[in-house]
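Hi Y.,

Following your request, here is the sequence exactly as I used it, all 210 residues.
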Amino acid sequence: MTITNACGWPFDAVLCDLHNVIRFYDLTRLAALEQAVGLAEGTTTRVAYAPETDLPLLLGKISKQEWVEAIVLGLTGEVSEPQARELGTALAEAPFWADEVVVTMLRRMREHMPVVLVTNATLELESDLISLGLSDLADHVVSSARVGVVKPDREIYEIAAERAETDMERCLFIDDRLENIEAAVALGMTGVHYRGPEDLRRVLGFALDA
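Below is the corresponding structure, written out as tokens. Let me know if you'd prefer a different format.
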């Protein structure tokens, strides 16, 4: 049986991913550069997001510039070093934007319960949120680069629930990656696999319309 709060709602806190839920990147320039040097679209991101390249960045152990250098190394043999550096820099400096539909829903939810961002991110996250105008979007931000652990590790979910001051079973967790959702559900959270704003509207409607 699902236990509800005094309002009859099925959870007491919203834990939400940032990337590909709230924030999105424009990789148009990167794609054009890859095409110009004869690489298949997505080659740079494949190298950049490989665990051995990406994980140190997400754990706050290296800077974004050091990450670019790791991308250059990973592209060795496929393009020249200057081309690899241009590709890595284009990815690192890709413009980003926030989905205002999702932002509006989360701001509305925050009127009713704690909202916590739970994200695998870099040490630049705080400044990125300021540039997006989202520094006040959530009650707390749990960034992998600050806490030293990444999703889907159990500890990052525990930190998020603790900051929300909410039991695991009373948390709603939203993410675009299934492995992160599955890890949250295994801990007793309610999981939402995000593919578009309607996924949020469907699960948050009871409070959005309150």
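The beta strands are 13-16, 23-25, 96-98, 115-119, 140-143, 171-175, 190-193.

Thanks again,
Q.
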